[in-house]
Design goal:
This protein is 39% helix and 17% strand. With 752 residues, it is α+β, with helices and mostly antiparallel strands. Strand 21 and strand 22 form a beta hairpin.
Length: 752
């Protein structure tokens, strides 16, 4: 029994391996001595982060590192070809050398290859050392930008607070005793996981998201095992995971003949302890993604960190928590955002300035947060993803609340002032946290300077933050509101949201244009020189380049392939003919050039290749709108009176058919697919309607009733087809009557 226990323990976590080297705990000789006791660590990799958030990964023999240790920290040991990383217009083809400077101020992680064993039986490891990238004597990487941004903000705040300037409402804070300014960052990682062998799971996402059946549900099988092992791995690297749990996704896992869990498609979340070292926090996030992907892969599971891997279902965010504190000479730490009386005020004067600066200047920050088409696919109303530049503080200071519909919200604990912070909800797992955090702290400084120099009380700053769109203000802009305690998604129409909070960008190009149109706000993030004009221009050029080429090489071809898959089916129904005419018209508009004109996809490609990005952006929006015409058609039909509307027999690119329904009351669209059988029987529409109605009368929800009707009619058609019976006699429904009482499996329903 003891032997079994030991084997299980070693399978979960090999206690003999070195998983990380903590910052500051070992000097040079200590590190070298430690590595000598772990000969299975065979390689070193210097990890630099380019402007797109990509990390470098190379294999340098450990002997070279141990021999040339000092050179690694002077940037003499390793250089790379800068044209192979995203540093557009900086490291060019004719000036490509980039030196890599190891960073001793953060943790170093060890990445193990369990498929390659060293002679001692342990997996071969690679010591991953975060580094900075140096080009022509200047640091140009994401890590150095965050480091230098925090240094600049800290320096400016120390000067401000040590100047003797009275900070209203914070008279009891010993600003003269401030030794340093600290920054806290914490991220939450969401990701989708599925079995790579199952191709249909996307179409099988269930109604559980709408019914709120998904949160806090048990993880099962290899998903549970992978999550538990991931938490163990992250804890071994000093990340101190606070929680791992299920988010959304309604696939009921299946168990195959070998007992292995299959047919998995669900979203998970991991949260770990925040770090007071901003660089460490961002490094932790990168390491967490690597560990998650490797551990889940080992258990036969695919992981996606895309912001919106499945259209129509909740995307994956990476909510980012930020705060600021003062470190006093006596060793005490004070949260500068928290008020002196947590029950009387939401924030301190500095806290109000912090959030006002972020909100006012967010147009300059937004491109660094949402830089891809995938990111914008996630930022849609109805999926708890923010669409407006607005904050929430809570309904009252003494009763903290969390509004999940805003861009950035206050998180506070009455009994723990040190926990006071802001949560930015727009980032996704591929947001460059280094650059996004840099912008947040730089723009917060602008607001703090205003709040302190204005001489306003916390109450006066709260009044300005809570202003109506038409109100004038000393700092915040007229024409928009910045605070909302209502549900931004459900309590406002699209037009009302745009009028109250400003119209958000819908594409990458619109995001870039908005930033360029706000030169004053861009100047806020370039103050101090860490995010200088060269860096900003390089970053913008890179995201426009990616946006352009993703549209040309991926999105347009995918759209063309999808639309080409629509096929006209045999029909004796005039309504079916009418629907097909409508679909055919849209097919031509999207992908088919004619003598009378070019289709939208052709026009979009030509605009992109010509550099006419204004036109390209407009066309991208129009194409996206046309792809959702099925939804709008259902909604229009519902306006004629019925709450529930169903369209049957919609041809899919996969070759299947789909029945699509709309629930006006809950504003939800449902899609249920079925196999296409090459035959037509009279009366199947009446049969579908009868079963659908029967489902409603027995208490079925719309998707449940649709599922029952789809399932029954599909079985009837297949059964009848197998007998080669005369089509004039209709389907042999008598043979399938028992199917009407079959229990419905929720995996058959998906949100559209």
């Amino acid at each position: 029994m003891d032997k079994i226990f030991i084997d299980l323990e070693e399978k979960i976590m090999n206690k003999e391996l070195l998983y990380y080297i903590p910052s500051g705990e070992f000097g040079k000789e200590g590190v070298l001595s430690l590595l000598r006791t772990h000969p299975e660590i065979r390689f070193v990799s210097l990890v630099g982060i380019d402007l797109a958030g990509n990390d470098t990964d190379e294999k340098i023999p450990i002997e070279i590192f141990m021999k040339d240790y000092d050179d690694f920290f002077e940037g003499k040991a390793v250089q790379t070809d800068g044209s192979s990383v995203v540093l557009m217009d900086i490291a060019t083809l004719n000036d490509a050398r980039v030196d890599m400077v190891a960073d001793a101020g953060v943790n170093w992680y060890v990445d193990y290859n369990e498929e390659n064993l060293y002679t001692n039986g342990r997996p071969v490891g690679t010591l991953r050392i975060p580094c900075f990238l140096l080009h022509n004597g200047k640091f140009i990487d994401s890590r150095s930008i965050l480091r230098d941004s925090c240094k600049y903000v800290a320096s400016e705040l120390k000067k401000l607070l040590a100047s003797g300037k009275t900070v209203r409402g914070m008279e009891d804070v010993p600003f003269a005793d401030i030794e340093d300014i600290g920054f806290t960052i914490g991220t939450e990682l969401e990701f989708w996981v599925k079995t790579p062998s199952e191709n249909e799971t996307i179409q099988h996402l269930s109604i559980s998201q709408r019914l709120q059946e998904q949160y806090w549900q048990r993880m099962r099988g290899n998903v549970r095992t992978a999550m538990e092992e991931t938490i163990e791995e992250l804890d071994a690297r000093g990340m101190h995971v606070e929680m791992g749990h299920k988010e959304v996704g309604g696939i009921k896992p299946k168990v195959d003949d070998s007992g292995k869990t299959t047919d998995v498609c669900e979203q998970l979340e991991l949260d770990w302890l925040f770090s007071s070292n901003p660089l460490q926090a961002a490094d932790n996030e990168l390491e967490a993604r690597i560990v998650v992907r490797e551990v889940f892969r080992k258990h036969g599971l695919d992981v996606s960190f895309k912001a919106k891997p499945i259209i129509g279902v909740a995307g994956s965010g990476e909510h980012t928590h930020v705060g600021i504190c003062a470190k006093l000479k006596n060793g005490k730490t004070i949260n500068l955002l928290a008020p002196s009386d947590m029950k009387a005020d939401f924030l301190s004067t500095i806290g109000y300035g912090f959030i006002m600066g972020i909100l006012k200047n967010y147009e300059a920050t937004n491109p660094f947060v949402s830089s891809t088409t995938d990111a914008f696919n996630r930022l849609k109303p109805g999926f708890e993803a923010p669409v407006c530049i607005v904050t929430s503080l809570g309904h009252a200071p003494e009763v903290p609340s969390r509004n999940r519909t805003i861009l950035i919200g206050l998180v506070r604990d009455i009994d723990n002032p040190k926990a006071t912070r802001f949560e930015l909800r727009a980032p996704n797992p591929f947001t460059n946290t280094y650059l996004a955090a840099s912008c947040l702290f730089l723009t917060s400084l602008d607001g703090i300077l205003y709040a302190v120099h204005s001489g306003k009380t916390p109450a006066e700053l709260l009044a300005e933050l809570s202003k109506k769109p038409e109100d004038d203000a000393d700092y915040l802009e007229k024409g928009r509101a910045y605070r909302c305690e209502e549900n931004v998604f459900e309590d406002f129409t699209q037009e009302e949201r745009d009028a109250a909070f400003g119209k958000p960008p819908a594409t990458v190009w619109e995001n870039v244009k908005t930033m360029r149109a706000n030169a004053g706000k861009t100047a806020v993030i370039t103050a101090g020189g860490s995010l200088n004009k060269t860096i900003v221009d390089s970053f913008l050029a890179s995201i426009v380049y990616r946006w352009k080429n993703e549209l040309i090489d991926r999105i347009i071809p995918t759209t063309e392939m999808l639309v080409k898959g629509f096929k006209k089916l045999q029909s004796e129904d005039d309504l079916d003919e009418e629907r097909w005419d409508d679909i055919s018209e849209k097919r031509f508009a999207l992908i088919k050039d004619t003598k009378s004109g070019k289709c939208l996809c052709t026009l979009l490609k030509e605009a992109l290749e010509a550099g006419d990005y204004d036109t390209a952006s407009d066309l991208q929006i129009e194409i996206s709108k046309k792809r959702s015409d099925a939804r709008s058609l259902l909604a229009r039909l519902s306006e004629l009176g019925p709450n529930d509307v169903v369209i049957t027999g919609v041809p899919m690119a996969s070759g299947k058919l789909a029945n699509i329904g709309y629930d006006r009351k809950n504003n939800s669209f449902w899609c249920i697919d079925c196999d296409y059988v090459p035959v037509s029987y009279p009366g199947t529409g009446d049969l579908f309607a009868s079963v659908l109605t029967g489902g409603f009368l027995t208490g079925d929800s719309l998707p449940m009733a649709m599922g029952r009707a789809t399932y029954f009619v599909e079985r009837c058609i297949k059964t009848t087809f197998s007998y080669s019976s005369d089509t004039r006699y209709g389907v042999m429904l008598e043979k399938e009557l028992a199917a009407l009482i079959d229990r419905q499996n929720v995996k058959d329903f998906s949100l559209l």
